[in-house]
Amino acid sequence: MITTLKFYYSYAAKGLQQTEIFAINIRSVMGMVIISEN
């Protein structure tokens, strides 16, 4: 039971990290688009 919780916790942490990176990538791409339009 505890090992399952640990595994789930690390999996969730990895998911959060990837979501953060994805959000940062989207933001930088949007910034590039705005800059190129000007």
TrEMBL record:
It comes from the Bacteria. This is Uncharacterized protein. It comes from Escherichia coli. The lineage of its organism: Bacteria, Pseudomonadati, Pseudomonadota, Gammaproteobacteria, Enterobacterales.
